Amino acid sequence: MDKIGIVDFGGQFCHLIARRIRDLGVYAEIITEPSPEFKCIILSGGPGAVSNPESPQLPQDFFKNIDVPVLGICYGHQAIAISLGGKVSRGKEREYGKKKANINTSSPLFDNLDKEEQVWMSHFDQVSELPDGFESTAETDTCKIAGYQNLEMNIFGIQFHPEVVHTLNGTRILDNFLNIVGCKREYNLKDWIDKEINNLQEDIGEKRVIMAVSGGVDSTVAAILLAKANIDAHFIYVDTGLMRLKETEEVSKIFADLGVKNFHTVFAEERFLSRLEGIKDPEKKRKIIGNLFIEIFEEEAIKLGDFNYLGQGTIYPDRIESAQPSHHAAVIKSHHNVGGLPEKMNLKLCEPLADLYKDEVRRIGQMLDLPKRFTGRHPFPGPALAIRILGEVTKERLEALQKADSIVTEIIRKHNLYDQLWQVFPALIPVKTVGVMGDKRTYEWIITIRAVESIDAMTADWSRLPYEVLEEISNKIVNKVQGINRVVYDITSKPPGTIEYE
Fold first, then answer.
1. What is the pTM of this model?
2. C-beta of residue 282 within 8 angstroms of C-beta of residue 387
3. Is 351 a catalytic residue?
4. Which fold has domain 394-489?
5. What are the residues facing 31 on neighbouring strands?
6. Which of 14, 15, 40, 74 is catalytic?
7. Is residue 123 among the annotated active site residues?
8. Which residues are registered as beta bridge partners of 263?
9. Contacts of 81 (CB under 8 A, 6+ apart)
10. pLDDT tens per residue, range 4-25
11. Is 415 noted as a catalytic residue in this protein?
12. Which listed residue (95, 117, 163, 500) is catalytic?
């Protein structure tokens, strides 16, 4: 099977490149150094500046040792130019977000594209002078060399990101590169399932696993894979007290319906709220929650017998935002099950989905015959409502948000909008504003509504919910939820925002 190597320069979208390539039927993996086993090399974006000696650089002999096609994206595009004698300079202004690019459609990289394309930019530095033998293939109003090529060397560079959905024909660009390379399209998720079951059987064998489950699609699919591999596992659901209304009852029913044996619920609301008392910083909250989860799982492992592994439904976006795949990446937020874990653990980690994205996990769930009500559930963070209450978590704020969450879900489902959205939820902003109810002054908190549309959670656009739906949500929350007198709607995309608030 042909393999593509993606050199990771620490960009948040690096692993999204691999995802897109795999979707096109070619196996791709993240690497630190190229080797002859790869059919071609893609150089990712990154947060550094190529002029900074501390930023990642291409080896001096990179192009002497590489005799395969190379595609540079954003930082990778600049790194190629610098290494071959070109120049990179600070642009007159930063380009960030959607831009219009003029495309040279005679380039094989841009085959079947229009002369003007919407692309997604995220840069300040840009290539200001091309190396000898290179020609420009794309430009924007502020970036004269937004693309280049050297057909003799089979080297291509683009300043924009084809891997994000906001570059409307980005997948076609990557597909064109695979055609230039001559890759065979042999990778598929069915083969991945068979391979992962074999890996679990070989790696874990007769050893025992404590599997952390939440009722969400990720941990449920991971649990089913363990069951398919005949791993001796016990499934532990922790009611942290930070859950949505009736969440514990619903999760218990999910696993009962799936016929999963050895399912256990641990009630730990008092422990979590006690540890979170007075804590406002979101990173501290995540780490406290992550550490307490591990304490509980290790306690349960002792109670239930001799266990070797802790199973988790960790997926790639968790690791990317926690900067785990690359030491070059910036930490966006420490996910409780990744960056929030304690340094020392008695249990080894088992994470069968760690290289997959949410939509891939959903497709695997469908292949494993999980009902759509499981595979289609909206993502719910492991730290639960603790990171949807900005600042300190208190019982009073928690109860208000639980009621608001129930109202939002009920109304979205009533209007048949749930399946159209990647995620919709309220968050509580602990800032009080003046209002008036029953001719009396009120001074209460704000609820913000977040509804986004996405494919893989790496990028997301805010959803244009109908005004009448927003009005219904606002009216019901203000009238039914004590302590709330104002509802606002978040119209921020990702990036620059994240989907969750903390």
1. 0.72
2. yes
3. no
4. GMP Synthetase; Chain A, domain 3 (3.30.300)
5. 7
6. 74
7. no
8. 235
9. 87, 88, 127, 129, 130, 131, 134, 148, 157
10. 999 988 877 888 898 899 899 9
11. no
12. 163
